[in-house]
# Entry
Amino acid sequence: LAWLEREVRALERPAVIVSHAPIGHRAAYPIVTLPRGEKPRGPFTDPASFIQEMYGLETVRRLVRENRWAAACFAGHWHLSDAIVEDGILQVMTAAVREFPYDVRLVEHDGAAMRVTTHRLDVPALVEYSYIPEWGNRWIEGTQEARSFEYMIGERAVQSPAARGKEPPCVSSR
# Structure
């Protein structure tokens, strides 16, 4: 964590942080089946029920949140497609390329914005074979808004804790 802290503090222009495990995510997801076949308690499930958080996550979140140049965080560990803005920072998760839905993300940057698009690999037999209707896992493909969008980047005003969660949406679908 000391290395990351030094790197984040040294930022002088907008940066994207890429990690295996997500730094930010929604409070709940529409899980139908939990690991080991357990049933969720309701239509939406806290990720803590199916994923162990990464070590030092709160420290990493604080470092990113407190730096005005941290524009976005990308991750893939959970094997689902999602994109949200949390504390003014774009948080993107990408589904697996080795199982349903067999997607990859393309990120293009033009100096002012990132354009993110999601593309299905051309392996229809594997996509069909790995989709398991009983698991109800079609939702991991993500919404259209989370699969294709544009995000403006630049210096971000660091918000006080009282203002967090009140920022306007910054993600626009394409």
Notes: Residues 159-174 have pLDDT under 50 and may be disordered. Residues 68 and 157 are 6 Å apart (CA to CA).
